[in-house]
Amino acid sequence: MPIGTSPALLKELDELVYVRRRLKSGITLYHTGSHCHSLYVVKTGFIKTENLHDDGRTQITGFYMAGEMFGFDGIADEAHMCTSVALEDSEVCIIPLERIENINPDLLRLQHHLYKLMSREIVRDHTMMMLLGSMHGEERLAAFMLNLSHRFHVRGYSPYHLVLRMKREEIGSYLGMKVETVSRIFTKIPGPGAVRCTSKRYYDS
Amino acid sequence: MPIGTSPALLKELDELVYVRRRLKSGITLYHTGSHCHSLYVVKTGFIKTENLHDDGRTQITGFYMAGEMFGFDGIADEAHMCTSVALEDSEVCIIPLERIENINPDLLRLQHHLYKLMSREIVRDHTMMMLLGSMHGEERLAAFMLNLSHRFHVRGYSPYHLVLRMKREEIGSYLGMKVETVSRIFTKIPGPGAVRCTSKRYYDS
DNA sequence: CGGCATCTTGAGTTGGGTCAATGGTCGTGG
DNA sequence: CCACGACCATTGACCCAACTCAAGATGCCG
Predict the structure, then answer these.
(1) Paired sense of beta strands A90-96 and A58-65, if any
(2) Cα distance from B155 to chain A (closest Cα, Å)?
(3) 3-state DSSP call for residue B204?
(4) Distance (Å, rounded) from C-alpha A83 to C-alpha A52?
(5) What are the per-10-residue average pLDDT scores of chain B (205 residues)?
(6) Nearest CA among A39, A75, A174, A49 for reference residue B134
(7) How far apart are CA A171 and CA A168, in angstroms?
(8) For position B106, what pLDDT does the model report?
(9) Residue B109, CB, less than 7 Å from strand D?
(10) What is the pTM assigned to this prediction?
(11) Which of B92, B99, B82 minimizes the C-alpha distance to B30?
């Protein structure tokens, strides 16, 4: 589920970066419907993207951590199709779309990387469709934790000791379950090493 | 959920097309894991893409009809991440990836179109995540039919009289429900005008 | 006409939703 | 420093939508 970027790519991307922006926890970066002029890369912190259904239901479509790129949904119609919110104090790099459109032909390789990143997002989404469409609660949560573990590991953090920056409700929204269900599974599944507390949410796997 | 292509774009895409390929109903175009060298556009017929879970469970991730492009998932790692199968006798255009990578700078607009198409696939996937994560059976089926209706309409067919080329089981796989549930909902929901038969599966909405 | 695949329908079970109560954590202000 | 309130997480009791299992029914094709 991650949208990884290789260090090399990150460096190249840096050249495209226009500005950075700091976001306090809970602040919205962009809203559904607003004009889309940029893509974003998480520099520090944690970002969620969510879709709002008319009747108030929401579905979280992604959690993004340092090094991961998001905002691809806005390219189609030049308007964001979801809302993105910081889960904790965060910093994002802003990459103006015009720079991508008028990209220097020399940077063709970068162009190609962008295709790959978008493709990876699509693969991730298909994985989520599989998860939502044919896995049980326990499996969903397990897959989610394993995925997080992997992403932390890649970034040099312990894959065994996860700090969940999102609330139970948000996990539920992402995995298509209610808070209570998430909570019950957390209680049931974990082996002896499990630790949990609110706000700073630790978890061993 | 459609990956629409404007007529203008289709024309430009034609220049990139290497060959076409006919597929008998039930034939697999590519398998998960096989090397990915192309994208595809449905010329006639109906194509499904599905993900295979280790334990035999499958999740259909998309249905594609005339004019819609698919195969974006293969770009990330140069290997297909799903399997695509013809639901009926079909014809697809094959667009070699190398042509896209070495695209003529004059066709920058085409480049841009490709980004849009991929972005649209991402938006579609997020819609599916919303559907799978927070809608009831009835709502899912309704959304599915409305979407199909819309896509047929765009292509000049009646939006009221749909010909479903996929089986109940496939609809179920796509929408995250079992065959029986799909069948029951079909029985329950439809107004008077509903017609159904096997193989040629008609449906009024 | 018979065989096979698909679809429908029924009966019973269950995973997860709903509602409601409890308890923990944190931030704020007296 | 402690009391209060807001927010979050957990837990229990109950319920229902969707799953499972098991027949039939229907349509397709050789």
Answers:
(1) unpaired
(2) 20
(3) strand
(4) 8
(5) 55 70 93 95 95 90 95 95 95 88 69 91 97 96 94 86 90 97 89 46 60
(6) A174
(7) 5
(8) 63
(9) no
(10) 0.90
(11) B82
> Cα(first)–Cα(last) distance of chain B, in Å?
18
Interface test mutation site (partner B, options A132, A135, A144, A171, max chain B beta carbons within 10 A)? A132
Give me the CA A171–C1' C21 separation in Å, rounded. Answer: 23
Nearest CA to the C1' of C9 belongs to which residue? B184
State the pLDDT confidence band at A192, using cuts at 50, 70 and 90: very low
What's the sign of the alpha-carbon dihedral B121, B23, B155, B165? negative
Position A124 scores a pLDDT of: 97
Put simply, the answer to whether B128 touches A127 (Cβ < 8 Å) is no
pLDDT of residue A193: 44
A167-199 b/e (C-beta count within 10 Å ≥ 16 → b) = ebebbbbbbbbeeebbbebbeeebeeeeeeeee
- Element (DSSP H or E) covering residue B151: helix B137-154
Helix (H) or strand (E) holding A6: none
Within 8 A of B105 by CB-CB distance, chain A residues are 105
Kindly state the tokens that stand for A181: 């269900």
Nearest to A7 by CA among A87, A100, A113: A113
CA distance A76 to chain B (A): 4
B178 Cβ within 7 A of any nucleic strand D atom: yes
- What's the Å distance between residue A62 CA and nucleotide D5 C1'? 32
